[in-house]
Amino acid sequence: SETIMRRNSAIRSFTESVDSDFPPAPELPPSLNIDLHYPEENVKKEVKHRRQLLRLILY
Questions:
Q1: Cβ(45)–Cβ(11) under 8 Å?
Q2: Closest to 23 measured CA to CA, from 50, 48, 55, 51
Protein backbone atom coordinates (compact mmCIF):
# COMPACT_ATOMS: atom_id res chain seq x y z
CA SER A 1 0.00 0.00 0.00
CA GLU A 2 2.77 2.43 0.91
CA THR A 3 4.66 1.43 -2.23
CA ILE A 4 1.61 2.19 -4.35
CA MET A 5 1.18 5.57 -2.65
CA ARG A 6 4.85 6.43 -3.28
CA ARG A 7 4.56 5.32 -6.90
CA ASN A 8 1.42 7.40 -7.43
CA SER A 9 3.11 10.40 -5.82
CA ALA A 10 6.10 9.99 -8.13
CA ILE A 11 3.81 9.77 -11.16
CA ARG A 12 2.00 12.95 -10.06
CA SER A 13 5.30 14.77 -9.54
CA PHE A 14 6.54 13.69 -12.95
CA THR A 15 3.32 14.79 -14.62
CA GLU A 16 3.39 18.16 -12.87
CA SER A 17 7.00 18.73 -13.93
CA VAL A 18 6.15 17.81 -17.54
CA ASP A 19 3.14 20.13 -17.46
CA SER A 20 5.31 23.01 -16.23
CA ASP A 21 8.10 22.37 -18.77
CA PHE A 22 5.96 22.32 -21.90
CA PRO A 23 3.39 24.72 -23.32
CA PRO A 24 -0.22 23.54 -23.42
CA ALA A 25 -0.65 20.69 -25.86
CA PRO A 26 -2.87 21.19 -28.90
CA GLU A 27 -6.25 19.54 -28.84
CA LEU A 28 -6.25 15.93 -29.92
CA PRO A 29 -8.36 14.88 -32.89
CA PRO A 30 -11.60 13.16 -31.79
CA SER A 31 -10.28 9.73 -32.78
CA LEU A 32 -7.47 10.06 -30.20
CA ASN A 33 -9.41 11.93 -27.51
CA ILE A 34 -9.74 9.44 -24.66
CA ASP A 35 -12.29 11.63 -22.87
CA LEU A 36 -14.77 11.17 -25.71
CA HIS A 37 -14.52 7.40 -25.48
CA TYR A 38 -14.56 7.17 -21.65
CA PRO A 39 -16.68 10.06 -20.34
CA GLU A 40 -17.13 8.83 -16.74
CA GLU A 41 -15.32 11.08 -14.28
CA ASN A 42 -13.47 8.31 -12.43
CA VAL A 43 -12.18 6.82 -15.68
CA LYS A 44 -11.14 10.25 -16.96
CA LYS A 45 -8.91 10.71 -13.92
CA GLU A 46 -7.17 7.40 -14.52
CA VAL A 47 -6.52 8.05 -18.21
CA LYS A 48 -5.41 11.66 -17.74
CA HIS A 49 -1.75 10.66 -17.49
CA ARG A 50 -2.02 8.41 -20.52
CA ARG A 51 -3.55 11.26 -22.51
CA GLN A 52 -0.74 13.60 -21.50
CA LEU A 53 1.91 11.05 -22.45
CA LEU A 54 0.15 10.44 -25.77
CA ARG A 55 0.29 14.17 -26.50
CA LEU A 56 4.01 14.23 -25.68
CA ILE A 57 4.62 11.34 -28.07
CA LEU A 58 2.52 12.79 -30.89
CA TYR A 59 3.69 16.40 -30.68
A1: no
A2: 55
Sequence-separated (6 or more) residues with CB below 8 Å from residue 13:
none
pLDDT of 37 reads 67
Alpha helices in the chain (DSSP H): 2-21, 34-37, 41-58
Q: Which residue ranges make up each domain of the chain?
A: 24-59
pLDDT 10s digits, 32-52: 777 676 666 656 666 777 777
Nearby residues of 23 by Cβ (< 8 Å), 6 or more positions away: none
> At residue 38, what are phi and psi to the nearest 5 degrees?
-130, 80
Q: How many Å apart are CA 33 and CA 15, to the nearest integer?
A: 18
